[in-house]
Design brief:
The complex is a heterodimer.
Chain A: E1 8-14, H1 19-29, H2 39-44, H3 55-70, E2 75-81, E3 92-104, E4 107-118, E5 128-135
Antiparallel strand pairs in A: 1-3, 2-5, 3-4, 4-5
Chain B: H1 9-13, E1 23-26, H2 29-39, H3 56-61, H4 66-72, E2 81-90, E3 99-113, E4 119-130, E5 136-147
Antiparallel strand pairs in B: 1-3, 2-5, 3-4, 4-5
Classes of the chains: A alpha+beta, B alpha+beta.
């Protein structure tokens, strides 16, 4: 595991964002907004035929990337902005890199820039933000 | 698409300090299973709940709903809400079958305009989650834009 500033965090990929998962998520969230489950409503408003992924689901892809990298209890803070919607059928890759390493209360914390890329286009970033992740007590630093 | 006059700016500013009823929320295994599946991940070990729960668990546990939050800011429509940011701080892992206490209030509410003149109301909600011992487990801040079709 790389734990110094600069290197990229291993990618995490959602091969195809699923409308069915959006519908399940809408039920769990009790979110009545039809943009997440009714493509006809989305079309009527002129946004095309594809339903819009819930913001928290996009955020969850970042969480999955950070968990795979640093462990399931590693995230201390995550801040996310949503410049563009994620749509059903999109191929989304969660990406990130370490911007700084610091010590706090006996823990080694990595400050990271994180973002989502759509369909492999590095300039198409529907979500972007920052995370603070506690690093395991490694000996390879 | 009908255009609707924006609410009085003072009504929006008066939302600061609004407290939600507060309450409790317990994530059962079935909910964590479905939620985690939606993210494309495997279940986390030891009954840990996927952190994506930090969106809806505080909202519902605080005694409100997404629909009520839209209505409080007098949203024009479901399409008029934009997300500025979600800021989640996690102090302890969340676990299945634990009854968490949630309190929430509105911390900021004001009218703003984009550089191109489009008007929106920016409303920020803060949720505090504590475990049965009263220890802080997480804090989440939701900042939404209520876009107005007429300035």
């Amino acid at each position: 595991m790389t734990t110094s500033p600069g290197p990229f965090i291993p990618d995490w990929e959602m091969k195809s964002v699923s409308a069915a998962r959006m519908r399940t998520m809408a039920a769990i969230l009790r979110d009545p907004n039809p943009v997440h489950w009714d493509h006809r409503t989305v079309a009527r408003w002129g946004f095309g035929e594809r339903t819009i992924n819930q913001g928290p689901l996009g955020l969850s892809y970042m969480i999955n990337m950070l968990h795979a990298w640093a462990g399931p209890t590693s995230i201390r803070r995550i801040v996310m902005r949503f410049p563009k919607p994620v749509l059903d059928g999109d191929r989304i890759t969660a990406k990130g890199w370490i911007t700084a390493i610091r010590e706090e209360n006996g823990e080694t914390l990595a400050e990271c820039d994180i973002w989502l890329e759509r369909n492999g286009h590095s300039t198409d970033r529907p979500l972007e933000g920052e995370a603070t992740v506690v690093l395991p007590d490694t000996t390879d630093r | 698409m009908t255009q609707k006059a924006p609410p009085d700016e003072r009504e929006i500013a008066a939302l600061v300090g609004h407290k939600f009823p507060g309450g409790h929320y317990t994530v059962e295994h079935w909910e964590n299973f479905l939620l985690t599946e939606c993210t494309g991940a495997d279940l986390l070990p030891d009954g840990q709940v996927h952190p994506v729960v930090l969106f809806h668990m505080p909202i519902l546990g605080a005694g409100t709903t997404i629909a009520e939050m839209f209505a409080l800011g007098q949203a024009d429509s479901d399409f008029s809400i934009g997300i500025e940011s979600y800021d989640w701080r996690m102090f302890k892992p969340l676990k299945e079958d634990v009854r968490y206490r949630i309190e929430a209030h509105i911390t900021e509410a004001d009218r703003r305009a984009h550089d191109d003149g489009r008007v929106y109301d920016r409303i920020q909600f803060q949720f505090d989650i504590a475990d049965p011992a009263g220890d802080a487990v997480a804090q989440t801040i939701i900042t939404w834009h209520y876009n107005r079709s007429v300035s």
